[in-house]
Amino acid sequence: MHIKSPLKTLIGIALSCSISLCTLAEVVVIVHPSNDSALTQKDVQRIFLGKEKKFSNGNSILPINQQPSSSARGSFDTDTLGRSSTQIAAYWSKLVFTGKGIPPKELDNDAAVLAFVADNQNAIGYVDNASVSDAVKVISLN
Predict the structure, then answer these.
(1) Which value, in Å, is the radius of gyration of the alpha carbons in the chain?
(2) Max mean pLDDT range (1-5, 56-60, 103-107)
(3) What are the two backbone dihedrals, phi and then psi, of residue 9, each rounded to the nearest 5 degrees?
(4) Regarding beta strands 123-128 and 105-107, do their DSSP bridges make them parallel or antiparallel, or are they unpaired?
(5) Across-strand partners of 65?
(6) Domains in the chain: ranges and CATH
């Protein structure tokens, strides 16, 4: 018979709680404050899959991804794009290999995405809701 030590049990509970808290982050799509385009979730999917190149106002789109290892990226891929990060990577690998597309530029974290979008009128990205500042506009996906 194997009995767990109380320390191992507490460590297990702590890890489970921290993993749960990480997955509770709400990812939001952001654009430059001057961007007046209306976007739906389908529009955002098309943008980040390279199928849409212009906003509804006619301006070119500059989509910005986060690094594959970021929790925001995983949530965005699953919740907004409707695919796993592995499926998204395979999708872009195929397009790059066949010369039919270039994946969105990747930045390191929320702060880098916020700064880039705030400085570029045609940029669109995503960050954790807790990171949003007045320098960008959150898009409500209808």
Answers:
(1) 18
(2) 103-107
(3) -65, -45
(4) unpaired
(5) 106
(6) 26-139 (3.40.190.10)
Q: Are 9 and 113 in contact (CB under 8 A)?
A: no
Asked if residue 139 lies in contact with residue 132, where contact means CB atoms within 8 angstroms, the answer is no
| Residue 71 token pair | 């929790």
Determine contact, residues 80/44, Cβ cutoff 8 Å: yes
Which tokens in the block code for residue 46? 């098309």
Interval 67-126: pLDDT, tens: 999 999 999 999 999 999 999 999 999 999 999 999 999 999 999 999 999 999 999 999
CA distance 62 to 77: 17
58: phi > 0 → left, psi -120 to 50 → alpha, else beta; which?
left
Cα dist from 85 to 6, 25, 77, whole Å: 36, 17, 6
Q: What is the pLDDT of residues 23-46, one digit of tens each?
A: 456 999 999 999 988 899 999 999
